[in-house]
Amino acid sequence: MISQRLKAIASLISKDDIVLDVGCDHGYLDIYLKENDLCQEVYASDISEGALNSAKDNFKKHNLKIKTYLSDGFDNVDVNYNTAVISGMGSETIKHILASEKTPDKLVLSSHKDLYSLRKYLNENNWILEKEVIVYENKHYYSIMLYKKGNQVLSKIELLYGISNNKDYYQYLYNKNSQLIKIVPFIKKINLLYNNHLLKKLIGKK
């Protein structure tokens, strides 16, 4: 059964998209897209040969023909695509992948670390954050972001916390910061207090 996180990623894919799933892992997203006819075509790549072989096995089990690539990001991919899905890795790795000249004009991204750094990088490199979906699964919040090429200026609060308007997520971050404030050195408390001040605005607290 496909996870809610992967369903959320799939919800940002359009019928006319030719998708490259970078870091496809077991290929579950690709199977879901293909079997439900959610895009024009889907390709799968991974830097790990083991992961790619696992995806290939799963494609065979589902009687699906999905072309795969052993590749660091877009490097070894020799087909045309207009959309890239990059999820399940840190922001520094994602930024490394996006530095390629082969990066398409539509991205669906989900980083598990340092979302501020990723949003800031994309904002400074002519990307528009069109939509952001927050999913809570396995006691963890996941941010899934849809980006398209263009110019946009995000505020500091949007760079830090995105545009999802998910108050449960903001409350979780506020509570997490509140716990950290009790144990971190004074210099770090100041930053956390400021962040909670911003989160209060998003949550609607006075």
Task: Provide a descriptive summary of the structure in words.
The chain has 206 residues and is of the alpha/beta class. It has 8 helices and 7 strands, in the order H-E-H-E-H-E-E-H-E-H-E-E-H-H-H. Strand 1, helix 2 and strand 2 form a beta-alpha-beta unit. Helix 1 (4-11) crosses helix 2 (28-35) and helix 4 (91-98) packs parallel to helix 5 (115-124). The longest helix is centred in the last third of the chain and has 18 residues, at 186-203. The mean pLDDT is 96.
Which descriptors apply to this entry?
8 helices, alpha/beta, 23% strand, 206 residues, 42% helix, elongated, 7 strands, 7-stranded mixed sheet
What is the general shape?
elongated
Low-pLDDT regions: none
- For the termini, the CA-CA separation is 42 Å
Instruction: Please give the largest β-sheet.
Output: 7 strands, mixed
Which quaternary structure do these chains form? single chain
Summary of the model, kept short:
The chain has helices spanning 4-11, 28-35, 49-61, 91-98, 115-124, 156-161, 167-181, 186-203, and strands at residues 18-22, 41-46, 68-70, 83-89, 106-111, 127-137, 140-149. It has 206 residues and is α/β, with parallel strands linked by helices. The protein has a seven-stranded mixed sheet, sandwiched between helices.
Topology:
Blueprint: H1 4-11, E1 18-22, H2 28-35, E2 41-46, H3 49-61, E3 68-70, E4 83-89, H4 91-98, E5 106-111, H5 115-124, E6 127-137, E7 140-149, H6 156-161, H7 167-181, H8 186-203
Parallel strand pairs: 1-2, 1-4, 2-3, 4-5
Antiparallel strand pairs: 5-7, 6-7
Helix pairs in contact: 1-2, 4-5, 7-8
